[in-house]
Amino acid sequence: MRKSLMILAAAMVISTTAATADPSVEQGETVFKRCMACHAIGEGAINKVGPSLNGIVGRKSGTFAGYSYSEANKNSGLVWDEPTLKEYLKDPRAKVPGTKMAFAGIPKPDEVDSLIAYLKQFGDDGKKK
Question: pLDDT value at position 21?
Fold first, then answer.
């Protein structure tokens, strides 16, 4: 009986840990509210203080049409894949020294993962995939 309870308890911990580790699009949408002063996403999104983020995942840094990027961003050679976005969103100035982005970063890995899950939904045209 005791062994069964221990196995059940361990399974619950593993299950809970796995569930909280999965990125949440809903949490990502909430996290994105911190970005909205400078960035837009979705149908009809325009460049603001920062570029539109439609189609950001997989896009080469410094290439969104109509936005005036810093030389640091244009010349970084980065492609915004998930690992690169994780590093950048944690500390933009450390990843791209000289970036114009004044945002301090998102220190919580689960929030970064959820934000990326949210951003991944949007294609270049702003429509959800």
Answer: 54
φ and ψ of 114, to 5 deg: -70, -40
Residue-level pLDDT at 23: 86
1: its two tokens: 């009986």
Expressed as residue numbers, the domain containing 88 is 24-120
* pLDDT score at 83: 98
Cα–Cα distance, 8 to 4 (Å, whole number)? 6
Name the band, by pLDDT with cuts 50, 70 and 90, for residue 97. very high
Residue 77 neighbours by CB distance under 10 Å? 8
Residue type for position 10? A
Tally the domains of the chain: 1
Residue 14 forms part of a structural domain: no
Phi, psi of 122, rounded to the nearest 5 degrees: -100, 125
Backbone φ, ψ for residue 48 (5° rounding): -120, -135
User: Residue 73 maps to which CATH number?
Assistant: 1.10.760.10
Is residue 31 one of the residues assigned to a domain?
yes
